[in-house]
Amino acid sequence: MRKRIAVIGGGIAGLAAAVRLRDVHPGAEVVVFESGPAVGGKLSTGELGGRTVERGAESFLNSAPDGAESAAVALARRVGLGDALVHPAARPAALAFGGRLAPVPGGTLVGVPGDLSTLDGVALPVSGADRDTGRPLLAPGADVAVGALVRERFGDEVVDRLVDPMLGGVYAGRADRLSLRVTMPQLAHTAETEHTLTAAVRAAQARGRRVPGRPVFAAVDGGMSRLAGAAATASGARISLGAPVRELTRTGKGLWKVVSGPVPAPRTEEFDAVILALPAKPASRLLSEVAPEPAAAVAALDYASVALAAMALPAGTELPDLSGFLVPPGEGTLVKAATFFTTKWPHLARGDGPVIVRVSLGRSGEEERLQRADTALLETARRELGDLLGVGLPVPAAAWVQRWGGGLPQYAPGHAGRIAAARAGLPEGLALAGAAFDGVGIPVCVASGERAADDVSTFLKEIT
Predict the structure, then answer these.
(1) DSSP structural state of residue 396
(2) CATH number at residue 442
(3) Which residue intervals define the domain Amine oxidase in the entry (predicted)?
(4) What order of strands is seen across the sheet that includes strand 302-313?
(5) Dihedral angle computed from the Cα positions of residues 177, 171, 32 and 85, in that order, rounded to the nearest 10 degrees
(6) What is the average per-residue pLDDT within 65-91?
(7) Which of 430, 452, 8 is nearest to 250 (CA)?
(8) Closest-CA residue to 146 (of 126, 168, 125)
(9) Contacts with 420 (C-beta within 8 Å, 6 or more apart), sequence order
(10) Contact residues for 108 (Cβ-Cβ < 8 A; gap 6+)
(11) pLDDT value at position 209?
(12) How far is the CA of 143 from the CAs of 178, 179, 383, in angstroms?
């Protein structure tokens, strides 16, 4: 009998799971349930001033840690978008602090230096603190907050001026509350054998194989929504939009009953296996009856809210020759990062048109600062951006604000262990995928979805 698999969540993790299921279990019927009006989740492409501008993730890593193509690149090729991959221009990024822009020091690992001599006054490390105590920095499998480890070894300035803005740019969180093992897995691995942080960073960098001439980042010409749409098509799955799943239970025959749709007109279907590719709270709610202990572990994950403000400045507006800059939390601004889109992405600067700047607003714990009207947020973004650049910026010809309420997971130390235990407690035929469980970044989410698909496919083959 033909097997049926439900993928609950139509973000990139769920879509990657659906594509993998088509490849490894081609005879199965796959249904993707998405509560929103479109697939893609935080892969959302918009328009501004006649140019394509992302309303969510703008790019993904081009390579995996072992030097192979990243899971996101492999997925793009799998769904027919290999020729649409584009790369950023070779422009440096900067840090904004103390009323000036300073180049981001080279040779760091998410802001953690492997050579303290390269900091060039951006941050002053504590002399002699990174000494060899005769034992590894971390016990096998142990976890620690990034900030705790780096402060102990390099001092406060390295965390406050380098690591915090780097992590904040990705997670909107603070180094003192983010898990080393989730946010910097390569460093956590080498810290289990190295006796100093300097040595651990260098070992992690050595393990990451860079292919000469290969750009660090990639994107999809035409926008990230193309990747989501192409994956949905390539999966061959039935895509149910506007179909929030409200109930997940087990039938007496060992099948999974999925109730979706609006309360007045629910739809009930049965499946042989289910993949939950959802944020933590809705995933926990669906798990509460079928797996109470994993549900509680999943529910513990916190999220940060952020907003993106995109501005179309008049053609000819002069900006520094940078891809953008990061802002340390200590500067007190709502702006935490800025990207000069039409400088960073040459394919977006074709022909005449406005200068596009996208600004990221808000960090974990700053949700109240985002509770303003879009016009107020845009004015704050323009004013603070001008202050950080030291110039007055013109009024944009067009602009928009994209809010991602509760959009970025905050991985406390021990997260990986808690999720491993939650997965171990799941009934057979049920898998978890996505940023809530395995980390942010498109390649990580793609790989997470693919692993979940492999898990349920193995289960289905065993019961056939």
Answers:
(1) P
(2) 3.50.50.60
(3) 12-456
(4) 100-103, 93-97, 324-326, 335-340, 355-361, 302-313, 398-410
(5) -150
(6) 95
(7) 430
(8) 168
(9) none
(10) 114, 118, 162, 166, 201
(11) 67
(12) 10, 7, 40
The model's pTM is: 0.96
Considering Cα of 294, then 297, then 299, then 303, what sign does the dihedral take? negative
Q: Domain check: are 149 and 269 in the same one?
A: no
* Other beta carbons less than 10 A from residue 233's beta carbon: 15
Give which of 139, 37, 97 is closest to 388, Cα–Cα. 97
- CB burial of 22-55 (b: ≥16 within 10 Å; e: otherwise) equals bebbeebbbbbbbbeebbbbbbbbbebbebbbbb
Helix-, strand-, coil-residue percentages of the chain, each rounded to 5: 40, 25, 40
Q: What is the pLDDT of residue 347?
A: 86
* Angstrom distance (rounded) from CA 201 to CA 108: 8
Tokens at 289, concatenated: 């009856």
Closest CA to 456 of 28, 1, 39, 13: 28
Q: Are 203 and 190 in contact (CB under 8 A)?
A: yes
pLDDT of residue 353: 86
What average pLDDT does range 204-222 have in this prediction? 86
- 441 backbone dihedrals φ, ψ, rounded to 5°: 105, 135
Kind of pairing between the strands at 398-410 and 112-113: unpaired
Kind plus residue range of the DSSP H or E element containing 22? helix 12-24
Structure tokens of 262?
Answer: 């609006």
Whether residue 419 sits in one domain with residue 295: yes
**Domain range spanning residue 185?**
102-207
Pair (201, 230) in one structural domain: no
Q: Say if residues 179 and 143 touch (Cβ distance below 8 Å).
A: yes
The answer for 202, left when phi > 0, alpha when psi is -120 to 50, beta otherwise, is: alpha
Digit-coded pLDDT (tens) for 239-254: 999 999 999 999 988 8
Nearest to 225 by CA among 342, 357, 81, 30: 81
